[in-house]
Write a structure and sequence with these properties.
The structure is a single chain. The relative contact order is 0.18. This protein is 34% helix and 17% strand. The termini are far apart. By secondary structure, it is α+β, with helices and mostly antiparallel strands. The chain contains 5 helices and 4 strands. The longest helix has 11 residues, at 55-65.
Length: 111
């Protein structure tokens, strides 16, 4: 079994701890560090975990929020189980084969 790694992106939480609730608050602060991103790019950076992040942007965020990279990004192992939907449509129960039961096959008369 291969290990799979994932991460938690804590930018929004760290911003809230510093009473920064508008994503646009970051635009001028990033510019002070020489990182020029559009409002849309900053919005995505705050609301979605980035798949790629430049070191300049990471360093600027750490400087703005007075935190470390480990505070922004928490790496964790992802354990995935195969699951199937329940009768109500919820996913959560691991896929399990139904119990075997004996059946009687009845053939129509005349065959």
């Amino acid at each position: 079994m291969r290990k799979r790694m994932g991460f938690e992106w804590n930018l929004r939480r760290l911003m809230a701890e510093r009473e920064m609730y508008q994503t646009t608050d970051l635009v001028p602060l990033l510019a002070e560090y020489g990182v020029h991103l559009s409002r849309e790019q900053v919005f995505r950076l705050v609301t979605q975990p980035p798949q790629r992040l430049s070191m300049d942007t990471l360093a600027a965020l750490c400087g703005i929020l007075d935190c470390s990279a480990a505070d922004l990004i928490q790496v964790r192992e992802v354990r995935r189980q195969v699951t199937k939907p329940t009768a109500s449509g919820e996913v959560g129960a691991p896929a399990v084969a139904p119990p075997a039961r004996r059946v009687r096959v009845r053939r129509p008369e005349g065959l």
